[in-house]
Amino acid sequence: METTIKATNLTKSFGDFTAVDKLNFEVEKGEIFGFLGANGAGKTTAMKMLIGISKPSAGDAVVAGYQVSNQAELVKKNIGYMSQKFALYDDLNIKENIQFFGGIYGLDSKSIEVKYNRVVENLGLQDYAKQLVRSLPLGWKQKLAFSVALLHQPKIVFLDEPTGGVDPVTRRQFWELIYEAANQGTTIFVTTHYMDEAEYCDRISIMVEGEIKALDTPKVLKKEFGVSSLNDVFLKLAR
Amino acid sequence: MKKFIGFVQKEFYHIFRDKRSLFILFGMPIAQILLFGFAISNEINNVDIAVLNKADDKNSIEIIENLQASKYFNVLEELQSEKEIEKAFQKGKIKAVVTFEKDFAKNLQRLQASKLQIITDATNPNIANTITNYINSILTKYSHISLKQNTSPELVGTESRMLFNPALESVYMFVPGVMTVILMLVSAMMTSISITREKEVGTMEILLVSPLKPITVIVGKVVPYIFLSIINATVIVLLSVFVFQMPIVGSLSWLALESILFIITSLSLGILISTLSSTQQTAMMISLMGLMLPTILLSGFIFPIESMPLPLQVISNIIPAKWFIIILKSIMLKGVGFGFFWKETLILLFMTFVFLSISIKKYKIRLA
């Protein structure tokens, strides 16, 4: 298997405080990797280093074939990102959003047109194409944001709590999109607080106080900790 | 480059779809300039005054006629005694009373000081001052023309000439001021708000994760406002020239160049504000309280800097608007060349440099 993310002793400290302490892990191509942890465990800091907007204090990570410490620009080109806050422009319509984001990733107008048609068709948004994104329901916006993050066919997509505040049905649909992308070979790196979502992941890691305390498939982890749900695994570790 | 154009296009969508910012951008300058032009004026016209003429002789009557004949005053009442003065003011219509002593003309003839008193309603000190000055100048003129043969030394008036603004039109004062305030408002406030909006909504994060360079993001956000500010400056200049007959004595190209410099200074301030604040609300408050008020109050736009207490005079030096107003006045009213405002230009350049360096440093810290 091909490795798309490889962290080696990845560390970030702010003064005396070590937010992320020597992370070592690998993620394979097409894998759905759940990145779990309580608030303040260092998830966001670790993710910021992996997506190239924060420099590691020590150690390094290779993401999509490039080092985050000194090839951040190349890393950025080859990944997609969607954050917990909804992150399309509210006052632009669907087409304008896709044109803009396609444009900043260097797609030409022809392929943007093709992708736009495909996205609108896939999500069934034909009737809403000219509407400002503001007027769409949150669930649709999230799905649209995910499709936009995939526009430039990145090797890896980073999803930072992508389904916050979304109803269970839409969440389910959202995960179908994730599976589809993973099946086509895109690596998915996702943080979440929903344990049912964690169950959908191929492998999960649980961060506690800056370190990864557990990393395996949900099944193995439950067995290892002798509990019936990931929720209990999480609680056992986080305490 | 293509990415950059796409970015600027997106920025224009934001601006043109937001009615509020459109209003601030285009409604405000026009409203402000018309307001300042028509409503807030230091000039006086047809002010009602009263006279108390105890002399009732040739000279006093002539002076009263002169006052009445000027377009500034309207002699509404002839009072009979000192007691009526206060009453006249209390009624509120009369803004000034001119009294002549009993032997006014006789004293004049005898080359003695003759007494004339001007009493003004100083509830509005600015107007009271202006009225006094106007009456004085009418008196001086009168003494020059009518009393040539026996000018008493006491009545020799001072002759003042108002250079660069001979008619003391207040338009001349406020056009540079309003232009400064508006360019500041549009450039600094609007950019800081539009950058913090991206932070607040979360799109800034997406932009930072994208292959766009941070500098492209910032320049892309700023360029539309440079365009709009230039349009605004042009509108203000056109309005003041064609509606208020403001002359522009100096070179138009210097006017344009210096305006662009000031726009860039304000934009860099806006960028600085946006690095300091994380929400639109904060950005707006900092812009309004920290920029607009000092710009209006301490730049010499409304209140002359020379008459401020020393600490405020010192503070006024760090306000970019002060220097731009000096430049504008030099170009528009005095018509002098670059030799006369290169210092102010350098100061603005230096300020821009400082604002930008602090912003870049702050930005880097955030990214590290």
UniProtKB/TrEMBL annotation, chain A:
Keywords: ATP-binding, Nucleotide-binding. Residues 5-234 form the ABC transporter domain. This is ABC transporter domain-containing protein. Pfam families: ABC_tran. SUPFAM superfamilies: P-loop containing nucleoside triphosphate hydrolases. It comes from the Bacteria. The keyword Nucleotide-binding applies. InterPro entries: AAA+_ATPase, ABC_transporter-like_ATP-bd, P-loop_NTPase. SMART domains: AAA. The keyword Nucleotidyltransferase does not apply. It comes from Psychroflexus lacisalsi.
